[in-house]
Amino acid sequence: MTLPIITNKIGVIVDSFQLGVKEGLLKAKQVGADGVQMYAVHGELDPANLSSAARKEWKSYIGGLGLDISALVGDLGGHGFQDPAQNEAKIDKSKRIMELGMELGTNIITTHIGIVPSDQNSRVYETMHVACEELARFANDMNAYFAIETGPETSEHLKTFLDGLGTKGVAVNFDPANMVMVTGDDPVQGVYTLKDYIVHTHAKDGVKLGHVDPRDVYGDYGYEVTLDHDQIAVMAESGSAFREVPLGDGGVDWPSYLRALQEIGYGGYLTIEREVGTNPEADIIKAVQFLKGFRA
C-alpha cells in the first residue's frame, strides 16, 4: 500500500520544549514547525494577565516569526466540567480563553472536559452536558471551537455526547496516542466516527502495556484517587500501564491514520505534543521530520 501524501501544516506545543513561551516559540521556528499551540490557562498567556496592548504584542511577535497559532490549550484541570460547584468559574474562564484565541488569530481552544459517564441519565452526565451546551453556543456564536481532546472514553461514546449538544461549537481535538494508551480504542476508526467534529489534532504516539482504568488517568468526580496535575504525562513516563514514545515508535498506524484524516477532508494542523522524555527537543525534531516524510 502506498503511503499517503499530506499537505497538513505541522505544529508544535510550545510547552513541550519545557522552556519559557518566547524561547519555546523560537525553538518551534528552529525545528521547522509551521505553527504553535500554547497554554493559555495561567502565567504569561492567562487572559486575566493580558491587556489589549499585550495581546497585540504577542500576535505581532508570533506573526513576526512566521508562525501561525494552531490552537490554544484551555485545559482547566480538575475533573473538567463534572463538578457543578466549579462550573460557573470554569465556564467563564473558558469563554475568556476563547476570546483571547480570536484576538491572537485562532478560533480553536483545546481542553479536557472530564470522562463522559456511560449513564446518560446520571447527574454528572447532565452537569457536563449543560456546561458544554453553554460553551458550544458561545463558541458557535463567535465562529470558534471548544475542542475536547480524545482519550478518556471511546470515540463512539464521545460522538453520542457531542451529537446531543445541538451545535458544532464543542468539537474534537483528536489525539490518537491517548486512544491507544488508555481505552485501547482504534484511532483510525475513531477518525471516521468523529469525522464531523475534528477541528485539530495532536501528533503523539504511545503503546499500551496493560489494562488501565481511565479514572486513574483523568480523575473522576467522586472517585477518590490522588492525581498529579497532568497524570497522563506522569503515567506515560513511568510506563506501568502505557508509555508515550517518539512519533512513529508506538501503536499508532500513521499511514492509515493520516489516510483516514485525508478521506474525511481534514486539512488542519498536525500539532506535535511531547509530554515526557529527557530530551524533548530531539524528539520534536524527529517528529517534525517524521511527518514531513509524508509530504510529496
Structure commentary:
The protein has about 300 residues and is α/β, with parallel strands linked by helices. The protein has one domain (about 10-295): Divalent-metal-dependent TIM barrel enzymes (TIM Barrel), CATH 3.20.20. The chain is built from eleven helices and ten strands. It has helices at about 20-30, 50-65, 85-105, 125-140, 155-165, 175-185, 185-195, 215-220, 230-240, 255-265, 280-290, and strands spanning about 10-15, 35-40, 70-75, 110, 145-150, 170-175, 200-205, 205-210, 240-245, 270. The chain has an eight-stranded parallel β-barrel, surrounded by four helices. α3 (about 85-105) links the parallel β3 and β4 (about 110). α3 (about 85-105) packs parallel to α4 and α7 packs parallel to α10 (about 255-265). The longest helix has 21 residues, at about 85-105. The radius of gyration is 18 Å and the shape is globular. It starts with 9 loop residues before the first strand and ends with a helix. The relative contact order is 0.15. The model has no long low-confidence stretch (mean pLDDT about 95).
